[in-house]
Design goal:
The structure is a single chain. With 495 residues, the chain is α/β, with parallel strands linked by helices. It folds into 3 domains: 297 residues, 3-Layer(aba) Sandwich (Rossmann fold), CATH 3.40.50.300; 95 residues, no CATH class; 64 residues. The protein is 47% helix and 12% strand. The chain has 19 helices and 14 strands. Strands 2-1-14-13-12-3-11-10-4-9-5-6 form a 12-stranded mixed beta sheet. A two-stranded antiparallel sheet has the order 7-8. A hairpin with a 5-residue loop joins strand 1 and strand 2. Helix 5 crosses helix 6 and helix 5 crosses helix 8. The radius of gyration is 28 Å and the shape is globular. The relative contact order is 0.18. The model has no long low-confidence stretch (mean pLDDT 87).
């Protein structure tokens, strides 16, 4: 929904009923949507996505709850929304229930057009960061990519990379002089990392045809296309979720030209459940995310994180999020109270009310809103109602969704997986009996070393358990023995 100045409207300030709008020129300064579960974050995301679309800005949004497909149909399906439209006289301001151009995507290919990347396109540096490899193990990965490039071995999917790693480690003496040494232990560590990725479904993500990320930047009828990624299954594989999002941002940064601060963003991203991107993430991966978020705004791309609390994000990322919508936070424990104070402190104060007190009083659909002005400075925080979406709230019928997916031109381009002769097939076909025996011997040795490592770990855990039992046994004796002696003395005295 746009106002007369073609600005994307977001909220209605509560006391004076002023409409609050994002400034398109500063919308690529990134943003945050935060709040406890059930406070309205998803509807806020949808409202913002639709207003960007009305502005002609394409949107990419990860749909982790499975209920963000609604904009494909006209809204008005909720009485609470219709009531607010009447109460706030939004139709007089240009509001109307209508569908939006939507394109569905899915890493697994079941609820949208398949999204794939090649291993070669990911590259050894980003893969090493995602796998949390140390310097030596990352060097092994670089060596495998270098050998594959020099020998014309295409790395399309995970089986290509794993087979190439076996090949290079099995022929280590041949490559030592030109590329450096490779140990079985380092190769095994890389293989274990790749196996973990495969167990989370990365086999579906890596392959061909690879997605052209510029396909996300499209408009239809003057409105930006809403690219909705089905992430309800992806979110259960947090490492793969992180792999995909970081690859996507990195790829966009690499292919898009510099634009400075354009009149409006070229593309806007919404990453729901953002804490999964940062929780237990390797330090090197966090540094990559922080770097890309800091620099990608110069490519005209805005990134909006959605999470329960601002504390879910690293301070280095949080400090770059200029446009903020903060829904209610719960304060049941001292830790919760600390989070409320920290969230309130991030806003530019408004003398009309206490942000800290308001954060615990907000109802569903209410929020504290702080947006950047034309100069990129944060405005004073306002207590406001988030405007309702113009598209449907909640998911559309699965059959209609499938029909939209199958009718998409991108389904024809990306729907069927390509299987060409790449590194795996070439190495399997060219392997001699002697090379196969050597590879199997190395694999057996690595498996034996892994078994020894696990046995030693189990033995150490047993020893630790035994030490703990002895400690507590001694503690019990030291406490109970004097009590027993005292009881016996009392018994004999009475006797």
């Amino acid at each position: 929904m746009l106002d007369r100045e073609n600005r994307p409207l977001l909220a209605l300030e509560q006391t004076e009923r002023r409409l609050l709008a994002l400034v398109p020129k500063t919308a690529n300064r990134h943003g945050l949507i935060a709040g406890a579960t059930g406070t309205g974050k998803t509807v806020t995301l949808q409202t913002m996505a639709e207003t960007f679309s009305d502005l002609g800005v394409p949107v990419f949004a990860a749909d982790v709850k499975g209920d963000l497909s609604g904009p494909a149909e006209a809204g008005g399906n909720a009485e609470s929304v219709r009531r607010r439209v009447r109460e706030w006289r939004l139709e007089d301001r240009g509001f109307s229930f209508r569908p939006y151009p939507v394109q569905f995507w899915d890493v697994f290919g079941s609820a949208g057009v398949p999204v794939r990347a090649t291993v070669a396109g990911m590259g050894p540096l980003l893969l090493g960061r995602l796998l949390d490899l140390n310097e030596t193990q990352t060097a092994v990965l670089h060596m495998v990519f270098a050998v594959a490039g020099d020998e014309g071995l295409e790395l399309a999917d995970l089986k290509d990379l794993r087979r190439a790693l076996e090949y290079v480690s099995g022929n280590a003496p041949r490559y030592a002089a030109a590329y450096g040494n490779i140990s079985a232990a380092s190769a095994g560590a890389v293989q274990r990392g790749l196996m973990l990725l495969a167990s989370q479904g990365a086999g579906d993500f890596f392959g061909e045809p690879a997605l052209n990320v510029e396909d996300f930047i499209r408009t239809e009828g003057g409105r930006g296309v809403l690219n909705i990624l089905a992430a309800d299954r992806l979110i259960r594989a947090p490492k793969l979720y992180a792999v995909f999002l970081v690859w996507l941002l990195t790829r966009l940064f690499d292919v898009l030209p510099e634009t400075g601060d354009p009149d409006k963003p070229r593309l806007v991203f919404f990453f729901d459940e953002a804490h999964l991107l940062f929780n237990d993430a390797p330090r090197a991966l966090l540094e990559k995310v922080e770097q890309v978020v800091r620099l990608i705004r110069s490519k005209g791309v805005g990134v909006y994180f959605v999470s329960q609390s601002p504390s879910d994000l690293p301070d280095t990322v949080l400090g770059q999020l200029g446009n903020r919508v903060q829904h209610a936070l719960r304060a049941f424990t001292p830790r919760d109270l600390k989070a409320v104070r920290a969230a309130a402190a991030t806003f530019r104060a408004n003398p009309a009310f206490s942000a800290e007190q308001a954060l615990t009083e907000l109802g569903t659909g209410e929020a504290l809103v702080s947006l950047l002005d034309e100069q990129g400075m944060p405005r004073p925080v306002e207590r406001a109602f988030i405007l309702p979406p113009q598209g449907r709230i909640g998911p559309i019928d699965p059959g209609k969704r499938e029909g939209l997916v199958k009718a998409s031109l991108f389904y024809r381009a990306y729907g069927r997986r390509e299987e060409r002769v790449t590194a795996f097939e070439r190495l399997e076909g060219a392997e001699t009996a002697k090379e196969r025996a050597t590879r199997e011997k190395i694999a057996a040795r690595a498996a034996k070393e892994e078994a020894k490592r696990r046995a030693a770990q189990e033995k150490e855990e047993q020893r630790a358990g035994e030490r703990q039992r002895r400690f507590w046994g001694g503690m019990v004796k030291s406490v109970l023995a004097p009590l027993a002696r005292s009881a016996l003395r009392s018994l004999f005295r009475r006797g």
